[in-house]
Design goal:
With 155 residues, the protein is mainly α. Helix content is 79%, strand content 0%. This is Phasin family protein.
């Protein structure tokens, strides 16, 4: 098995902890970033599943359309009267157009639903991240020693 480059052996969290930045809870920062990566992973999974559902539905609609086309072509061959054939073709064209509009609406709704799920997941994580950052800042502020009063001030 090929050896991984040394970069993959680097422990980033240990490096940050060795820096000892005052007032910063590095464990909380690392945990927050793990949650961010997890949220992005879930968002990508949701987006993939949504597109997969759209593609499956499109394939199903295409199959249905082909079956209907084959039936229509067969029934058109049986017609002897040109006026009746023309009326039938017009009616079938109207039905096909209405079905196409309905299918497009369905595909649009499927994609919107998928996009909405992804957006909600990312929005929720973004809000959580802001709250985590606020908590870290509050904690860092509380940990600061009280500022010394300048000499000669009275209070």
């Amino acid at each position: 098995m090929a050896k991984q480059p040394e970069f993959f052996d680097f422990d980033f969290t240990k490096y940050l902890q060795d820096m000892k930045i005052p007032g910063v809870d590095l464990d909380a920062v690392v945990e927050s970033q793990k949650k961010n990566v997890e949220a992005l992973t879930n968002a990508n999974r949701l987006a993939f599943e949504g597109m997969q559902a759209v593609m499956q539905r499109q394939a199903e609609l295409l199959r249905q359309s082909m079956e209907e086309y084959a039936k229509t072509a067969q029934s058109m061959g049986d017609m002897k009267d040109p006026q009746q054939a023309m009326a039938r073709q017009t009616d079938m064209a109207k039905q096909a157009f209405e079905r196409m509009i309905s299918n497009m609406r369905e595909m649009s709704e499927l994609m919107a639903k998928s996009n909405n799920e992804v957006f909600e997941l990312l929005n929720k994580r973004f809000s959580e991240t802001l709250e985590e950052m606020k908590g870290m800042m509050d904690k860092a502020e509380a940990a600061k020693p009280a500022a010394r009063k300048p000499a000669g001030s009275s209070s």
